[in-house]
Predict the 3D structure of the following.
Amino acid sequence: MNYYTEKITRALLPANATALLVALLLACATLNVSAQESVVEEDAVGSALVAPVGVSSVTASDAPNDAGRAVVVTFVPAPVPQSEDQALTLSYEIHRALSQDGPWKKVGAMPSDTTAIMTFKDAGGRDTTSSDYFPTETDLYYRVRSMTVDTALFAESEIAGPVQGIGQWWNSGRSPVFWFVLFFTILTLVFLNVARKRGDSLYIRPLAGIDAVDEAIGRATEMGKPILYVLGLGTASDIATIASFTILGRVSRKVAEYQTDVIVPCYDPIVFTIAQETVRSGYMDAGRPDAYRDEQVYFVTQAQFAYVAAVNGTILRERPATNIYLGKFFAESLILAETGAIAGSIQIAGTDEIAQLPFFVVACDYTLIGEELYAASAYLGREPLLLGALKAQDYAKAVIVVLAIIGVIMTSMGYEWFAEAFKVVG
Amino acid sequence: MKRQIPLALVILFGWLMLALYFIPLEGAQKINENLLDWTAIIGIFALALGIWSLISVNVDKIQYKKRDWPYSIVTLFGLFAMIVFGLKFGGADSMFQGQESYMFRHFFDDILIPIFSTMFSLLAFFIASAAYRAFRARSALATILLVGAIIVMIRFFPFIAEYTRPVADWIINVPNLAAKRAIWMGVGLGIVATGLKVILGIERSYLGRD
């Protein structure tokens, strides 16, 4: 610490007492205290210190797993100055050029570090008009400039290159995901085959929340009140919303059979169009297409709390016998569920948003926790194909638990390669 | 055909998007970006359908004087007022300055935002009422929940924080996190399973009826 402080002080102040004296005499001799004196002073600085030793072992290589718009530069940092006259390296500038003769362009900088091999990733985009543009499949050269407190005093490394940024066909950092998807697809296909042979005799554990759906629809019929079905704030690409569509289809079919009513206020316009089609299909499946009305499924708004206000208003005015909340929910979950509780409705909820689950557990009669929401469609339909996929899911989970236990043991014993093999990068 | 063409498209683009996840090549990423742009474009068309639904449902209520029909007038007024004030045409003197117009900002900042805040603030009261129901010690498990919740709630309480905080941190970081991770794992697998069911064509409920 003292060493560096001293070096910086040396660089900032005149090199020795003679230089200081000369500078003071010059200052006194002229009335015009000008920038010229500063130049003299800086010249004194420049002449007092010698350039630092540059970095060594500079390498440049194509960055892996990318579109060819990045190069990785590595170098061994400059050693600590061995004499007091040598300037201290404060930072490194990385320069790039299309040929060894330049022109060189500064593409980044890093603070000085003398402890390890340093790595710099020079990445950019494909927009040729942008300053961030990075040419792909073009010879590039790199050099590292060791900078001192005096911008005129620096050391340059040897030139590394040529190197080209080449796009890859395969992101090897994501290979574990590929192998898992492949394994899971095979497992699903195996169980689909098993399910085809065994029909609907595959056992799946009871889900109280789904068992309660039929009961809740019956209750609504007896009370002569509607059922409110909320798909949440998710979009049509959210898996929770897709799972909810499946359950909505079953619910609307039952509702049509029991000749009661279902209300579906929607938050997302795409979800609204799909929900409308799903409910209409449910009524058609039940043989009662005439009972379907367009105003049962309607779009409200895409503003979160305006949507909550509208749904809460519907709950308090219509007093539905049953409220079903299945899909993606955020801060509005408790507001909806508590309003439903105040209205005295039976409430069934399910979401994969973990932060909202406690709210639903507290305020609703039945809650589908996480994956139970996805399992509900298979459970309701009892279709062999869906049951097969569910079974594959259970076995995959068992495999993951076994792998996790092995990973804990292996890592504890110092064999970290096992856990590393499952690491997803990029 | 009504069902087969959409199903074929879902399977084709499902597998394509899955493949693009593993291909970092620039051409592949361009295709990926274009497909995602199409999602936004489809969303705009769906929004038109959504607004039409909103108008037709509320006009119907007003026309037949259904229950609470005056609320529909307010809804339609709000919808059209924001559309009109959000228009942008004319010069700098025009009152139609798009999102910068006085009326648009006034409606948004002084009416809509306070209403949103009011709705959100209801959450505080609902948390209290929900907590009251959840924390009634009716059984051994409910009592454990109650004790755990009290420790977590008072972990920053002055004077006793040094005693309660380590216990509260342990509750949050060990049993609570373990349960969360179990749910995450199940959710992750469920997402993959449902995604596979969709792109394998097993899950077709979103397509409606034949």
About this structure: Residues 1-85 of chain B form one domain.
